[in-house]
Amino acid sequence: YELAGLETARIPFGLTVLAEALGAEVNMGTVDRQPSVRSHPYSNGLSKFKMPENLLELKRIPAVLKATRLLKERVGGKLPVIVGFEGPVTLAGHLLGIERMAVWIRKKPEEVKKAFEVTTEVNARYAEALVKAGADVIVPCDPSASSDLFSPRDFEAMIRPFLARLAEEIRAVKVLHICGRVTPIVKAMAETGYDSLSIEEKVNMKEAKQLAGDLATLVGNVSPAKTLLSGTPQQVKEESIQAIKDGADALAPGCGLAPRTPIANLKAMVEAALEYES
Q1: 158, 109 Cβ separation under 8 angstroms
Q2: SS3 letters across the chain
Q3: pTM above the 0.90 mark?
Q4: Where do the structural domains in the chain lie, given as residue ranges?
Q5: Of 238, 232, 182, 241, nearest to 212 (Cα)?
Q6: What angle do helix axes 263-277 and 233-246 make, rounded to 10 degrees?
Q7: How far is Cα 218 from Cα 239, in angstroms, rounded to an integer?
Q8: Residue-wise pLDDT tens digits, 174-189
Q9: Calpha distance 126→64 (Å, rounded)
Q10: Fewer beta carbons within 10 angstroms: which end of the chain, N or C?
């Protein structure tokens, strides 16, 4: 906002905050590599899982809640405060192991459903705390729910019900982000009850717009790596204007911004939106 003119305030995050709080070992990464899970504490399943009474006091969760309150105090009334976290499928993959979960979805579907029940409940409790701390927009980011990993049939039968359950629990504007080539599941994503869907540049915005219809608005989908990180301001403007023409309701990066993204390129994205609007 202050440096580039972006019209939102979002807390940087890694997709490991909840996993770490529930016992996963995390490699905290570097400026160029986000934190990642190194161990899976529930490799035998979550059938005996009990929600920690002090969940909101564990690991990095208090820091995120404090950051949300501070950001609300600073920009509340001027900008929407956005906070994201790992969605139910991604969190389940962190706890079980994504390869194990991919096998179990066929061989032990009840174990996977139990895992999704647990992670959806954890997500809902965390989302409630974030909203109380001042978050205006909640973004479950669920890359492991992508049709790059699971079939549209698996999404419909196993994943969609839990994303929909989470949507019902979030008492704020809610945006669902799923990475990858999600065109085969865009319609199902739109039917889960989120206000908006955030999609990557791998998805054709025009086609996604047709599939989502009036069920959800679309956010995206300027390439964060190819264009915003590595491109020129002119390339950023061209891709941004094309995204708007193709149907983006809110212009944004297609996924997380790399820390070394040039400010000039972020300014170019904002300028493209303003110029197109005028």
Answers
A1: yes
A2: CCCCCCCCEECCCCCCHHHHHCCCCEECCECCECCEECCCCCCCCCCCCCCCCCHHHCCCHHHHHHHHHHHHHHHCCCCCEEEEEECHHHHHHHHHCHHHHHHHHHHCHHHHHHHHHHHHHHHHHHHHHHHHHCCCEEEEECHHHCCCCCCHHHHHHHHHHHHHHHHHHCCCEEEEECCCCCHHHHHHHHCCCCCEEECCCCCCHHHHHHHHCCCCEEEEEECHHHHHHCCCHHHHHHHHHHHHHHCCCEEEECCCCCCCCCHHHHHHHHHHHHHHHC
A3: yes
A4: 9-198, 219-278
A5: 182
A6: 40
A7: 16
A8: 999 999 999 999 999 9
A9: 10
A10: C
Cα separation, 63 vs 75, in Å, equals 18
d(CA 180, CA 202): 6
User: What is the predicted pLDDT for the residue at 277?
Assistant: 86
Burial of 34 (0-12, 13-18, 19+ CB in 10 A): middle
Fold classification of 9-198 (topology level): TIM Barrel (3.20.20)
Strand partners, 196: 175, 217
